[in-house]
Amino acid sequence: MKEIEVLNQEGEKIGNFTLDEKVFDGKVNITLIHQAVVTYLANRRKGIASTKTKSEVRGGGAKPWRQKGTGRARVGSIRSPLWRGGGIIFGPKPRDYSKKLPKKMKIGALKSALNAKLKDKEIVVVDGINLENYKTKSLLSILKKLKINSERIKLVVPTIEKNLKLASRNLEKVETETADNLNAYTALDCKKIIFTKQALEKIQERIKKFLS
């Protein structure tokens, strides 16, 4: 039976959380994680880069000069790719970079990512994060007591409350995430993950649905 200690906002140990052995089985599938990360990043690409071809550049309807007798090269249009301001050869055009990955594989990648984080001792579980106000220094005080305020942190909660959202938005190294939206990439894209007990329970149930 695997357990992880639970801290309160003061950084004091108040108990243990029993990890589900079906989820935290110690197995890390690097290949699956790679597929999930590549898919996630590809789906974030907008693919709107575009250049104009010779047919799309404005102007150039008339021949710049006559075909023969000038001593210059034969030119049919100022829109030629050889000319400054002309069309672009093989330039980028809007395209769809999106990829598809079965949901079971996405969940499997998340499971592997969490096991990797647990193995590296980069998961912290707290009883809850309750802010009385929306001041950034209130959240910084909690992180300081947890002794992880100088690293890139991911706060995973069941729902992002207003005070937490406002208190964390000015902290460059702190990101908040809901348990429903956590994926392999966002789990790995930090040095420490802070879970509330409720959020960790929710993620375990979410993963277990796809393990059969």
Give a nutshell description of this structure:
The protein is an alpha/beta fold and 212 residues long. It contains 6 helices and 6 strands. Strands 2-1-3-6-4-5 form a 6-stranded mixed β-sheet, sandwiched between helices.
What is the CA-atom radius of gyration, in angstroms?
27 Å
CATH architecture of the largest domain: 3-Layer(aba) Sandwich
**N-C termini distance:** 20 Å
Helix percentage: 25-40%
* Mean pLDDT level: 93
Number of strands: 6
Level-1 CATH class name of the largest domain: Alpha Beta
Order of strands, widest sheet: 2-1-3-6-4-5
- The third-level CATH topology of the largest domain is Ribosomal Protein L4, Chain: A
Major sheet: 6 strands, mixed
**What does the overall shape look like?**
elongated
Tell me the structural class: alpha/beta
Helix and strand string, N-terminal first? EEHHEHEHEHEH
Quote the beta fraction.
15-25%
CATH superfamily of the largest domain: Ribosomal protein L4/L1
Instruction: Name the poorly predicted regions.
Output: none
Discrete helix count: 6
Number of domains: 2
